[in-house]
From TrEMBL:
Keyword Cytoplasm carried by entry: yes
Signal peptide annotation: none
Organism expressing this protein natively: Vibrio panuliri
Subcellular location per the Swiss-Prot or TrEMBL entry: Cytoplasm
This protein's name: Glutathione S-transferase
Family classification: Belongs to the GST superfamily.
Domain GST N-terminal: 3-84
Residues covered by the GST C-terminal domain: 90-223
Major location category of this protein: cytoplasm
Keywords: Cytoplasm
Length: 245
């Protein structure tokens, strides 16, 4: 296929940032179509033709549409001849990669993002939803610490999840962890895990880190300044992000 891949991307979505970051870091030429969740772009008829589940990231390549970050990342690297670099060079390294991708969905993504970040941090800031009770928050943070303890052990003695080279799993994992930066206790939480801290710094040193995360990094201090409050309608996130894109 000669037509360019279109990625439907919201810079405030963790998996969406991971896909965009991989494309940047791997030098894959894509067309980015911003699809703002806070403006409801993901509910438009045009977008639902690409992904009826109304989620980002999504992809269109000619008449082929695809959703789910890991599937899109695999497809992008497959058609650009660099899958070995990002998803494993042999049977064993591919198996290790699949182990990490499975662990992400059932541990990091679930415990950190779905169970804590969304209900306790993002939805109160975006839509003014009530935060979970203090007892629920304590329970969710305990689960996060258990998960981070496991991740810290997984990184022991190596610079990246799969060894000496950065992989798709690293970009996927850390994009979710960056979301936690809107928690005022982020530094206190993360500093307890030295292997994770060193790994994050390595990933922030990648050439494409700043471009990929520029919009999110711009709104993080603004969300923190709300101190648990909200600006009303969530469209302000899109307006602020667009100032630096």
């Amino acid at each position: 296929m000669s037509d360019k891949v279109i990625i439907f991307h919201d810079p405030t979505s963790e998996p969406s940032r991971a896909v965009y970051w991989l494309a940047l870091e791997a030098g894959i030429d894509i067309e980015v179509q911003y699809t703002w969740l806070t403006r409801g772009d993901h509910m438009s008829e045009e977008f639902l033709e690409v992904n009826p589940l109304h989620q980002v990231p999504a992809m269109r390549h000619g008449d082929f549409c695809l959703s789910e970050a890991t599937a899109i990342m695999n497809y992008l690297t497959d058609i650009n001849g660099c899958s070995d670099k990002w998803f494993g060079r042999d049977v064993k390294s591919k198996a290790v990669m699949n182990k990490h991708l499975s662990w992400y969905h059932t541990n990091l993504r679930k415990v950190l993002t779905l169970d804590y970040f969304l209900p306790a941090l993002l939805m109160p800031a975006y839509l003014g939803f009530d935060r979970p009770s203090e007892a629920e928050i304590i329970s969710k943070l305990e689960a996060i610490h258990t998960m981070f303890s496991s991740l810290d052990k997984m990184l022991e003695g190596k610079p990246y999840l799969c060894g000496d080279e950065v992989s798709a799993a690293d970009l996927l994992y850390v994009s979710d962890i960056f979301a936690l930066e809107i928690d005022s206790n982020y530094q206190h939480i993360i500093q307890q895990y030295p292997n994770i801290v060193a790994w994050i710094e390595r990933l922030k040193a990648l050439p494409s880190y700043e471009q990929c995360n520029r919009a999110w990094n711009y709104v993080v201090p603004q969300i923190l300044a709300l101190d648990g409050g909200t600006k009303g309608t969530p469209e302000w996130i899109k307006t602020e992000c667009e100032k630096v894109l």
